[in-house]
């Protein structure tokens, strides 16, 4: 019926047309959808011919039909049903391409040119009606475009379908493709309007209605690739396609400075990737090839010029096209670099920049457009000609007496050498520096700071850093003459948190000793400029670290800084920082003379005791530093001690000290921050405790008390509890203070007094109590006397066993109390009234106060209580005397009560932490053999074990019977579970568990497995118990997959779970289990839990003494090979560390099980990972790669003989990775580049200076030839290549002084073993620059590195 109705409807179209409102088309759509299962296509073919015939023409009705979305939906439907051969014939007969061109031309132009708001909450537009006025609106065009793209996507997919097997269909597909096989100029008439329709969609914001719009760019690319290829294709793309494409690029890439659009991320990402690929292939790469061949950029110029004149896209102009073109060119260059293509990239990008700059040169908004381009160049790190940047800076940023600092910052960061290498650059630098000290520059502080940073980089690159030091001083002098000098970025260099000239050795990294000496002589010859001199010398003195620089420059800096006259400004106060550094660095013989020159000024300043001035504070710090530096054998320490003592004695009468606010947090670390008069007291205290590590100890030894600033703060403890806690924490953390017996005793006694006094508060433990509790916990155990330990334990026990106090103690406080008790009881500590009942009381009182706590916290609580109970009972069991006998009697009574409770009620469960006490008693009393001879304790271990087994059994029974414990947690049951797991090893076996029904165990297993997947730690614990006691009753007795560990302490939970699985396995079964674990990981189970399980099983196999593998069976060598494969595919750094740890374990502890294959594959994998040849893989940390190679060199050195080419490739790749890829500044957590360089140097020295054990053989070479000498000769024939690589890297990259010093021993060891012919090869293989570097390295080797002894 539906087929007949479809035929009737199609035939009626010739007579009635589409209908007044398009109702005939809607009816046709209904009929087509109803006949979807038909195997005939005559009606569809008739429909197609009628639609194309009606759409052709210039009449109003034809245009309406071309624009109407339903028309294209009908075409999309028939495109899918008509066989390809017939479809191609019909489309050719009805001139489909011409109809499509006209339709695209219509739809790509809208009546309203205003931009529709594109908010993410935009209301859905009503569907377009069959009326030309409705269809020509922007929303109507967007809806029509969506329908056109959908039909074209169907068509292109059918053309490119490779699954068709019919030859008839293949011919039809070729005929269909030939419809679009036109020259580029004609193909552009399709692609250009399609791109404009994409822009229409972005302008309209009708993303919700445009389903499938993510594929639009792919459709454009597919149609374009069907055209006939020609030599001028790139030119046609530049003329016709680049204009509309750039309008889309600027929106999806966010290049516009205003009018940001809320584009869905899926569309943004797909269109961005698709447009980049399409334009790279059709425009950028052909234009680049033309440039490399003929040195012209006509294609780029035409693209920019044509896009500006493109009247078909009013939004398209150079504001869009220039940044869009530069973005496409830079991203194409990055793709080429990733593929290893580097030739011509630099010159090409420079010419593209020139063409883009020429296109915007006459525009009024050229500065803003240039900012966008330079920002791209800065982010992409593409080269820009320094000459071009100078022109841009002159003509764009420095016009009409105004300065565009944002533009200057962008261009200088793009190319720091813009001010180097020419007279024009020098003149430009001079003008920039003059403008940077003008008052107007203060409004652009951050931008000017970026410019200064680029200037610093430029002078470093030019290796004329001393010239910058001179320039910097001149700028400081210029700033000093301005009224608003405090806000100048020039004064922030080398101070505080400024990243410019940061670090402790920046002078040594950039200047030689002679250059700094020349600078000091030049400054010394000038008229003194106090503030400039203080700022400059302060930064320079902070940048000196090595003894060589200190010895050479210390006295010279002191002589220069003495010229600074007295001043009350904060900047001039920096003089005393420089003085302290310089005097400490000066020769010892000149200390007395230097002190004679400054002691008068120091006395005057400290005598005034003006606490609220920076000069007093800096002078005080200077005295402290010099006292610490001169003690204990200096001649001037008495003078400095008297100065500081007199200053401190007079502080008590200062009213401003008593009125200081304590709300300021005492800063951590080295307190060389700027002085603040509002927070003077905390700054003095911070310096006394943190800034000068030995000062508090020296002061206390002299005066038997703390400095008055610290004492004043202690006496006002009630005003600021957080400050007092931080104060004592800092004092107790200072190892110099804690190692001084009297000072440590006084500090600890004061802390304990405060802790016991805080317990008198009815709200204990409040904030103060917790502060003192944490402070005592951080004191080293050796610093606590027995009396102090007993005082603290008595206070803890009193609080924990009082019902009134215990219910107020929080979970965190309980954990802190248990940890501190375990720490104190690890030494002989018998506090007053010590009894077993104290442990019982705390075990009972802790449960109500931790109700509704997280499972992880409860598990940690059980662990800490167990540690406390173990330490306490162990102290009692060490020596049996009256106190310990009474203690054990109470324990025996406790065990008996537990046994009776179990006998009276078969379902009775004792409190959870009682299980922990039973476990501790059983374990410790069994291990203490001396107690077995006493009647009191002879049966106690066995009784405790029996009660413990019954308690663990009751816990498992409770979890098996109560089904809602995972969804509705109960604190007592959770604690019981964790205590049972903790006691599982002592309980050993529970044969009574066989009485539990297998169905109950299976259900418990299923519930716990679901909890494990959800990340519930209780699921892991239940599974651990089941695997430990009833593994054969489980449905999955040997799980081979493990989830990711989530949260703190989960690794230990997983390890216990794996232990419970593996513990009872025979060795052969463990090997099979390892094979299954590795197979699951390589199969896709890339979790850290899987790797932790693998690591533990490997450790068990290494320790096994009965490991026997038959030929052909899985062994440790195959496991090592699988782990190496896993390392090459590791997707996270965490996983790679676990794999490296396991590989090291195998290589080091089981070398006889490894083969030559294992060693070579591992070295090859490390070389690939360190050189980034494996994409999509997260390489392991550099230190771990070095550890792997180190183990190979030490344990498998003999396997490297004859295979040095593999080792060399690894060492060269690691060296390049160290210098080019590893950050020069250490991360927040991780080793520094110098530490990594030391690890690499260790590898080289191991190769060049092998140990006898690493290279010894069963049969030596000869009686007169040692194995180490033979290994050195063998290495000497190859290792010079590593030295050559290092010289090359020094010329290509910046190698810091610290890295060079760390690598110097390694290079010296290579010089040691390299024969004369190898050195000749080194010399011949290098150019003049390389030979100069090598000559300097060899000179240092002969002076410092070569062994000249007997």
Task: Explain how this protein is built.
With 1350 residues, the protein is an all-alpha fold. The protein contains 67 helices and no strands. Helix 58 (1156-1170) packs parallel to helix 60. The longest helix has 30 residues, at 265-294. It is globular. Residues 113-122 and 311-318 have low confidence and may be disordered. It comes from Emericellopsis atlantica. InterPro entries: Ribosome_Biogenesis_Reg, Urb2/Npa2_C. It holds the Pfam family Urb2.
How would you briefly describe this protein structure?
It holds the Pfam family Urb2. This protein has about 1350 residues and is mainly α.
Largest sheet: none
What Rg do the Cα atoms give?
41 Å
What overall form do the CA principal axes indicate? Answer: globular
Beginning-to-end CA distance, first to last residue: 110 Å
DSSP E strands, number:
0
Instruction: Outline the low-pLDDT stretches.
Output: 113-122, 311-318
Q: What level of helicity do the residues show?
A: 55-70%
Pfam family, one: Urb2
InterPro entries: Ribosome_Biogenesis_Reg, Urb2/Npa2_C
Protein name: Urb2/Npa2 family-domain-containing protein
Organism: Emericellopsis atlantica
């Amino acid at each position: 019926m539906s087929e007949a109705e479809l035929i009737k409807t199609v035939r009626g179209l010739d007579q009635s047309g589409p209908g007044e409102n398009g109702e005939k088309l809607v009816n046709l759509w209904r009929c087509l959808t109803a006949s979807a299962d038909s195997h005939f296509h005559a009606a569809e073919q008739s429909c197609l011919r009628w639609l194309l015939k009606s759409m052709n023409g210039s009449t109003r009705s034809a245009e309406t039909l071309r624009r109407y979305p339903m028309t294209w939906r009908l075409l999309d439907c028939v495109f899918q049903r008509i066989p390809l051969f017939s479809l191609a014939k019909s489309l050719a007969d009805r001139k489909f391409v011409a109809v499509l061109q006209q339709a695209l031309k219509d739809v790509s132009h809208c009546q309203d040119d205003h931009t529709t708001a594109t908010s993410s909450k935009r209301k859905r537009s009503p569907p377009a009606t069959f009326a030309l006025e409705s269809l020509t609106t922007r929303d109507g065009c967007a809806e029509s475009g969506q329908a056109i793209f959908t039909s074209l996507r169907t068509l292109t997919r059918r053309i490119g379908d490779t699954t068709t097997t019919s030859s008839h269909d293949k011919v039809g597909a070729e005929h269909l493709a030939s419809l679009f096989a036109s020259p580029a100029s004609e193909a552009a008439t399709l692609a250009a309007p399609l791109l404009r329709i994409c822009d229409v969609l972005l302008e309209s914001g009708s993303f919700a209605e445009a389903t499938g719009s993510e594929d639009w760019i792919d459709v454009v690319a597919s149609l374009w690739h069907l055209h006939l290829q020609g030599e001028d294709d790139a030119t046609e793309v530049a003329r016709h396609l680049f204009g509309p494409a750039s309008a889309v690029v600027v929106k999806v890439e966010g290049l516009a400075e205003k009018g940001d659009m809320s584009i869905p991320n899926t569309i943004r990402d797909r269109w961005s990737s698709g447009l980049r690929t399409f334009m790279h292939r059709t425009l950028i790469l052909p234009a680049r090839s033309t440039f490399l061949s003929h040195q012209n950029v006509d294609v780029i110029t035409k693209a920019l010029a044509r896009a500006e004149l493109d009247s078909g896209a009013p939004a398209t102009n150079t504001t869009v096209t220039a940044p869009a073109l530069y973005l496409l060119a830079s991203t194409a260059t990055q793709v080429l670099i990733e593929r290893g293509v580097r030739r011509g990239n630099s010159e090409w990008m420079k010419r593209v920049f020139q063409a883009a700059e020429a296109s915007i040169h006459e525009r009024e908004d050229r500065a803003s457009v240039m900012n966008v381009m330079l920002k791209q160049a800065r982010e992409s790190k593409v080269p820009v000609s320094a000459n071009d940047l100078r022109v841009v800076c002159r003509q764009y940023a420095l016009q009409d007496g105004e300065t565009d600092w944002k533009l200057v910052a962008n261009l200088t960061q793009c190319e720091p050498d813009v001010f180097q290498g020419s007279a024009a650059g020098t003149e430009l630098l001079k003008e920039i520096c003059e403008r940077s000290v003008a008052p107007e520059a203060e409004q652009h502080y951050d931008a000017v700071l970026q410019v200064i940073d680029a200037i610093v980089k430029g002078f470093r690159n030019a290796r004329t850093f001393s010239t910058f030091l001179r320039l910097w001083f001149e700028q400081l002098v210029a700033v000093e003459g301005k009224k608003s000098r405090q806000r100048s970025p020039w004064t922030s260099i080398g101070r505080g948190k400024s990243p410019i000239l940061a670090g402790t050795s920046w002078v040594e990294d950039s200047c030689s000793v002679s250059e700094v000496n020349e600078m000091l002589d030049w400054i010394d010859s000038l008229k003194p400029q106090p503030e400039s001199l203080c700022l400059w010398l302060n930064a320079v003195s902070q940048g000196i670290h090595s003894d060589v620089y200190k010895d050479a420059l210390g006295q010279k800096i002191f002589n220069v800084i003495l010229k600074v006259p007295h001043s009350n400004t904060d900047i001039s106060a920096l003089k005393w920082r420089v003085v302290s550094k310089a005097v400490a660095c000066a020769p010892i013989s000149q200390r007395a003379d230097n002190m004679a020159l400054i002691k008068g000024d120091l006395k005057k300043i400290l005598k005034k005791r003006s606490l609220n001035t920076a000069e007093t504070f800096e002078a005080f710090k200077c005295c402290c530093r010099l006292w610490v530096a001169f003690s204990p054998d200096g001649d001037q320490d008495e003078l400095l001690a008297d100065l500081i003592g007199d200053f401190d004695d007079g502080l008590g009468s200062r009213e401003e000290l008593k009125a200081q606010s304590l709300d300021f947090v005492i800063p951590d670390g080295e307190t060389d921050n700027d002085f603040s008069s509002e927070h003077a007291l905390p700054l003095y205290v911070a310096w006394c405790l943190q800034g000068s590590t030995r000062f508090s100890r020296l002061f206390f030894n002299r005066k038997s008390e703390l400095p008055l600033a610290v004492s004043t703060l202690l006496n006002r403890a009630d005003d600021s509890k957080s400050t007092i806690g931080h104060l004592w924490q800092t004092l107790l953390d200072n190892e110099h203070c804690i190692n001084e017996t009297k000072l440590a005793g006084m500090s600890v006694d004061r802390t304990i007094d405060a802790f016991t006094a805080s317990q008198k508060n009815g709200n204990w433990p409040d904030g103060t109590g917790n502060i003192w509790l944490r402070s005592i916990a951080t004191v080293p155990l050796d610093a606590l006397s027995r009396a102090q330990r007993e005082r603290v334990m008595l206070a803890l026990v009193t609080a924990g066993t009082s019902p009134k106090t215990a219910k107020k103690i929080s979970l965190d406080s309980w954990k802190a109390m248990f940890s501190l008790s375990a720490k104190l009881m690890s030494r002989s500590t018998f506090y007053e009234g010590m009894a077993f009942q104290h442990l019982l009381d705390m075990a009972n009182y802790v449960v109500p106060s931790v109700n509704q706590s997280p499972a992880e916290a409860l598990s940690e609580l059980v662990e800490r209580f167990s540690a406390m109970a173990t330490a306490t009972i162990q102290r009692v069991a060490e020596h049996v005397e009256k106190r310990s006998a009474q203690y054990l009697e109470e324990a025996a009574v406790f065990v008996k009560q537990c046994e009776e409770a179990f006998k009276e009620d078969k379902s009775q469960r004792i409190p959870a932490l009682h299980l922990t006490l039973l476990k501790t008693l059983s374990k410790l009393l069994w291990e203490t053999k001396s107690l077995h001879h006493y009647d009191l304790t002879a049966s106690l271990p066995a009784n405790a074990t029996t009660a413990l087994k019954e308690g663990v059994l009751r816990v498992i029974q409770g979890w098996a019977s109560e089904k809602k414990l995972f969804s509705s947690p109960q604190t007592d049951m959770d604690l019981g579970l964790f205590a049972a797991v903790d006691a599982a090893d002592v309980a050993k076996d529970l044969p009574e568990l066989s009485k539990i029904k297998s169905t109950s165990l299976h259900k418990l297993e299923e519930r716990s497995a679901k909890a494990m997947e959800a990340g519930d730690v209780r699921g892991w614990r239940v599974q651990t118990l089941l695997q430990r006691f009833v593994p054969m009753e489980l449905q999955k007795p040997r799980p081979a997959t493990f989830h990711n560990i989530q949260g703190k302490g989960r690794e230990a939970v997983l390890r216990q779970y794996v232990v419970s699985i593996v513990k009872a396995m025979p060795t052969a079964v463990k090997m099979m289990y390892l094979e299954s674990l590795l197979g699951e990981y390589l199969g896709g189970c890339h979790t850290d839990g899987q790797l932790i399980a693998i690591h533990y099983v490997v450790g068990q196999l290494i320790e096994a003494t009965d490991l026997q593998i038959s030929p052909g069976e899985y062994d440790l060598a195959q496991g090592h090979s699988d782990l190496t494969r896993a390392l090459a595919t590791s997707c996270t750094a965490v996983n790679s560390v676990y794999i490296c740890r396991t590989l090291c374990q195998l290589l080091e502890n089981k070398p006889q099980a490894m083969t030559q294959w294992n060693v070579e594959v591992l070295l090859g994998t490390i070389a690939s990972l360190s050189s980034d040849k494996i994409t999509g893989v997260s390489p392991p940390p550099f230190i771990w790669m070095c550890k792997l190679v180190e183990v190979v060199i030490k344990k498998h050195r003999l396997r490297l003989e004859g295979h040095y080419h593999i080792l060399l490739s690894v060492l060269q790749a690691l060296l390049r990775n160290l210098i080019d890829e590893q950050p020069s500044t250490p991360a927040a957590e991780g080793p520094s580049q110098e530490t990594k360089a030391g690890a690499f140097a260790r590898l080289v020295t191991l190769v060049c200076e092998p140990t006898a054990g690493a290279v010894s053989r069963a049969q030596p070479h000869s009686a007169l030839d040692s194995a180490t000498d033979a290994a050195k000769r063998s290495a000497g024939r190859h290792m010079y290549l590593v030295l050559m690589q290092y010289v090359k890297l020094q010329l290509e990259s910046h190698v810091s002084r610290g890295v060079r010093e760390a690598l110097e021993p390694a290079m010296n060891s290579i010089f040691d073993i390299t024969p004369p012919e190898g050195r000749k090869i080194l010399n011949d293989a290098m150019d003049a620059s390389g030979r100069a570097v090598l000559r300097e390295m060899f000179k240092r080797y002969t002076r410092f590195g070569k062994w000249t002894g007997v």
